[in-house]
Amino acid sequence: LSVAGTGSTFLWKNYQLLTDQKLPHDHMITDVSAECGIITIRDPAERLESGFLYEFMYPRHGRARLTKFKSASNFANALLDTNNNDHRKARYLFRASVHKSSPGDSGSFFLYPQSRYFDRNVNKTMHVFCTRCLTEQWSTFSHQAMAGMHMQRSKEASSEVKTKSKLGANQSEFIRTLF
User: Fold this and answer.
1) CA pair distance 144, 148, nearest whole angstrom
2) Alpha helices in 6-100 (DSSP H)
3) DSSP-assigned letter for residue 120
4) What values do phi and psi take at 89, rounded to 5?
5) What is the CA radius of gyration of the chain?
6) By the 8 A CB rule, do 33 and 124 touch?
7) Residues 42, 4: Cα–Cα separation, whole Å
8) How far apart are CA 50 and CA 58, in angstroms?
9) Among residues 77, 8, 6, 68, which one has the least CA distance to residue 43?
10) Contact 133, 38 (CB under 8 A)
11) Confidence band (pLDDT; 50, 70, 90) for 76?
């Protein structure tokens, strides 16, 4: 299952390299069609930061939703503060994301609840990898299986983009309370 902002692209690409099997990478596929599935999960605040980083780095890959806000902090502040000028816009984006049902819908895949992937697969065996653990596990595996294959982005973010994608401690805690 391809949960946006959790390392699913990395897992998808590297699985295909290792197995020569072509798999779909679709964030709206939430049902496992086999007896078991593989899913990556991530801390919701880190996932949101990843979403901002992705949209800032690849502005032409799909419709920008998160980056309608100047930064991840601006979005979190607008969502939290009912007096913020962008509160309604932030609240709309959050609600549209939670209720997203097709790729063309408003809302961001990076705010789509990870729990929905589990809700739809209660009778399936799910192999769950946390993004932090996946990085460590993949590094160990690839070192043993294929020297030189390691986790790395194809493009490095500028320091400005990294800064705009970061949340403060209070903002991170707030985002976690939403999920």
Assistant:
1) 10
2) 8-19, 44-57, 72-80, 87-98
3) T
4) -65, -40
5) 17
6) no
7) 10
8) 12
9) 6
10) no
11) very high
What is the spatial distance between Cα 70 and Cα 130, in angstroms, rounded to a whole number?
Answer: 28
91, burial (CB in 10 Å: exposed 0-12, middle 13-18, buried 19+):
middle
* pTM for this entry: 0.80
User: CA 68 to CA 86: how far, in whole Å?
Assistant: 10
Residues 98, 116: Cα–Cα separation, whole Å: 9
pLDDT digits (tens, 9 = 90+) for 141-160: 666 655 445 455 567 888 99
Q: Is 43 helix (H, G, I), strand (E, B) or coil?
A: coil
Give the Cα separation of 169 and 148 in Å (integer).
Answer: 35
What does the pLDDT average to over 56-68?
83
Residue 50, CA atoms < 13 Å, CB-side half-sphere: 19
Beta strands in 21-179 (DSSP E): 36-41, 125-130
Number of residues that make up the chain: 179
